[in-house]
Task: structure prediction
Amino acid sequence: MDKPINKEDLQLSAYDYDLPKELIATRPVEGRHHSRLLVYNCQTDTVSHHTFNELVNFLPQETTLVLNQSKVFPCRLKGKKETGGSIEVFFLTVEPNKDGLYRALVKANGKKKAGDIYHFEDGLTIEINGNIEGEFLIRPSLIGNDLINYLNAHALVPIPPYIRGGESDEQDKKDYQTVFANELGSVAAPTAGLHFTDELLSKIKEEGHDIAKVTLHVGLGTFAPVKVDNLEDHKMHSENYCVDKNDFEKIKNAKKRFAVGTTSLRTLETIWQAGVENYTPGELKDTDIFLHPGVDVKSIDGLITNFHLPKSTLLMLVSALIGREKTLELYDIAVKEKYRFFSYGDAMLILR
Result:
């Protein structure tokens, strides 16, 4: 059952806050688990400040951490039109449709139409086949693993536009990927997971906690701004998720469940709201769940998350857990304490 809601909590303007530009992290800290961690305890209404490698000190006994193991693929490919002009193709998926076509965005001067052919390093060509609602269907001269290998060698990872203007480099291929990434398919990293190292994950297991994984492939919609004034009019983008049998059993039977990141929480909450008993492990499903104040989050006992953009659905998701006013209060504290914000920034742990 959803909670009563304050009308102001449904207004987009109520999720704005001031952030000094210098607090936007442009690179991760040296040693991922040395990022900072703001801990908020809902039961005691207290805030404390730590480093991420102290996380294990705040986990209740026998906690199961739920990680999103989706892997970012290099999807931004720069090349030339047949006329010599510059072109950029942004692959939205590594999986072709039944006709061997891939969904993509295409950036180029002039009109883009079916039949246009673009040229890239080492002989790759891409032909536009058609377009649907701003997206293009394209046919590369390589497909499957050959295409993936080509993208790994020649394309750039798609860091968000608020990081260095979205211009990524080879270092980002390492930095903008979790150490547990395993299932290729995301165009954005599940960034709360970036703070973990193999060393920290081993320490967590040694302390008697467990790790479970879900796969939710993060789409470009994660960067999409909310364009309506009333949140009830906002339609969330849809993303694919899957949980295998072993991980699903761990999650379902967990003594305490902590989601690592908003994508893990969206996966869990989608399953919980549809009824845990109704999910078939291993089944690929879609979710367009929108978590905001008024929605009762049932699936978790804690959340690890980064600090998110003003007026973003991710900020609204955190507000669904602890309320909008408390969320903005914590963000104000984070600004005053000079935490680093957004994808490469610091983290917050919410204990419910």
About this structure: Residues 262-274 form the longest helix (13 residues).
